[in-house]
Every structure is written in structure tokens, then in C-alpha cells.
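Duplicate of #3305? Posting structure anyway:
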């Protein structure tokens, strides 16, 4: 029988999730129907309810509904709890609505599996202190980096986010001038939304050395403004978020089906589509 899945967002037309999940399903001869559903803040809760009442197995949630999905759930995984946002929904046998967040695991898996980047003992600089940063902190901490510094142009937001996690890791915070980060980073992650408006969220070149890996959670057909800048500043590698998109999808797919898809052919497919 066809299993029903979906992704909720607004806008949603651009989403690559349906073909990504179809690729995964084909690896297991699984017959799935994975749709894009455009919702609104007012209709989101009833749209999700209707999806599950009509036999939906699981769904993804993207911008701008991840926080609303978090509020809607009856139960949350530990990862979703610390992320403060949900991108994966499913129901248990008692019809309880569960929320998970696969974004951070997607990043960590892409770095480790697809790019052989060692997070353990590395000095990490994260640009931005919004929801995207919150979602990746715990999975990064679990890989035991040497340090994590959050830099944000509104420094109070960076301070607040860092202090929220201080019971599990000594996260440092600083402003856009990076005055609290006087060294080259091993890993710089752009978790700001600056790429959406082609703006550069960083100006200090001395944090980039020839061993520095630079990663943008965003991706586009062309390299983002951040990755163009890091490449010309001599970074070891400048990586966009395409692999993270596939890896987070794989974590969601596993959450729903308990089947672990091979992501390599799907990453290869996305590179040409
Ligand atoms: P998201 O959920 O994608 O993280 P968000 O919560 O709105 O979105 O956070 C966006 C982040 O990008 C913030 O840290 C924001 O900085 P401020 O807190 O100072 O607003 C950051 N950001 C957005 N545009 C930026 C730009 N042009 N330069 C630097 N930082 C930017």
C-alpha cells in the first residue's frame, strides 16, 4: 500500500524534499506518495491534523512552521527539545503526535561522512544566533569540539543562546567584530540568514586560515556570498548545505521507516538538479 508523506512550508514550491524521499524509497522498493503542502500560520495545526487523519505516516516541516510544529506536539525527542523547533512529525501507536529535529544530525553527518571533517577537538565559530544555530548546537556539542563561539551582530542574542547551553558546554559569545575570537577557526559555520539577501555576515579575514573548513547551512545554484568570500580568503574548503539537506532528510526517513537510505547517490543527483 502507498505510504503517505509530506512537507509543510510557505513558500514550498522550491522544495526538493519530494524527489529526495522518492530516491530513498526506491532503494527499498517502498511505494510512497510525498507531497508539498503550502500552509498558513492559521491553518497549520488543522492541516497537520487532516494529514494524519487521512493516513499520513510522517511529515517534514520547514520555514516558517518549525516553531509552531514544536508547540503543536504531544511529545518531543530530546533533540527537538534542545533545538526548540521541529522539522519531523510522526504519530505513535496511541496517535500521540511526536516531534523530532533532524537538522543538526544532518549537518554533523554531512561534515563527518561526506567531507571527512573531524569535529572532535576543533575550534568552531558559528555566525548567527537564531533558530538555525539553536538547532545545530547540541549535535555539534555531542561530537566534543574544543570550543564553540557564537558570533552575532546583535550580541545580546548570542549571549543569551550561549548561556542557555552552558550547563552542557562552555559556549562563548561575541559580536560581529569577533572581538572574543582572536585566532583562526578550524570550522566556521554560517547559520545566519544573510545568504538569502546575498549579504556577507563576516568581515574578519584573520579567522580563516589555510586549514579552516567553511560551511554555509544555505545553498543556491551559485556559491553563496559567504562561500565566495571564504574561498578567496584561502579557506581549506568552502562547503554549502546541499549535503545537509540530504542527510537531514535521511534522518527523517529513518525516523519514519526505520530504513537507513544510502545518501551518496542522492547527493550526486542533487548536484546536477
Ligand atoms: P533562522 O531561524 O534562520 O536562524 P532567525 O532566527 O531570524 O532565522 O535568525 C537569523 C540570524 O541571522 C540572526 O542571528 C541574524 O542576526 P541578528 O540577530 O543580529 O538579527 C542573522 N543575520 C541576518 N542577516 C544578517 C546579515 N546581513 N549579517 C549578519 N547577520 C545576519
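Output from current build:
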Amino acid at each position: 500500500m502507498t505510504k503517505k508523506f509530506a512537507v509543510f512550508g510557505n513558500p514550498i514550491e522550491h522544495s526538493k524534499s519530494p524527489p529526495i524521499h522518492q530516491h530513498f524509497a526506491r532503494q527499498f522498493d517502498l511505494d510512497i506518495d510525498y507531497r508539498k503542502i503550502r500552509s498558513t500560520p492559521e491553518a497549520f495545526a488543522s492541516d497537520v491534523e487532516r494529514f494524519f487523519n487521512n493516513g499520513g505516516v510522517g511529515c517534514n516541516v520547514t520555514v516558517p512552521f518549525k516553531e509552531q510544529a514544536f508547540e503543536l506536539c504531544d511529545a518531543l525527542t530530546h533533540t527537538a527539545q534542545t533545538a526548540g523547533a521541529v522539522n519531523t512529525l510522526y504519530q505513535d501507536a496511541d496517535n500521540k503526535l511526536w516531534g523530532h529535529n533532524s537538522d543538526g544530525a544532518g549537518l554533523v553527518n554531512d561534515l563527518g561522512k561526506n567531507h571527512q571533517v573531524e569535529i572532535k577537538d576543533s575550534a568552531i565559530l558559528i555566525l548567527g544566533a537564531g533558530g538555525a544555530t539553536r538547532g545545530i548546537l547540541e549535535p555539534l556539542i555531542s561530537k566534543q569540539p574544543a570550543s564553540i563561539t557564537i558570533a552575532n551582530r546583535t550580541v545580546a542574542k548570542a549571549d543569551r543562546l550561549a548561556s542557555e547551553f552552558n550547563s552542557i558546554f562552555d559556549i562563548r559569545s561575541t559580536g560581529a567584530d569577533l572581538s572574543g575570537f582572536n585566532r583562526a577557526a578550524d570550522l566556521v559555520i554560517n547559520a545566519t540568514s544573510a545568504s538569502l539577501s546575498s549579504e556577507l555576515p563576516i568581515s574578519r579575514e584573520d579567522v580563516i586560515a589555510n586549514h579552516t573548513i567553511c560551511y554555509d547551512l544555505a545553498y543556491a545554484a551559485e556559491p553563496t556570498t559567504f562561500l565566495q568570500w571564504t574561498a578567496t580568503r584561502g579557506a581549506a574548503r568552502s562547503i554549502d548545505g546541499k549535503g545537509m539537506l540530504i542527510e537531514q532528510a535521511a534522518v527523517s526517513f529513518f525516523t519514519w521507516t526505520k530504513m537507513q537510505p544510502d545518501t551518496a547517490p542522492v547527493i550526486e543527483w542533487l548536484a546536477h538538479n
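Confirmed duplicate; merging threads. The chain has a mean pLDDT of 97. The chain has two domains: 3-101+243-271, 104-240.
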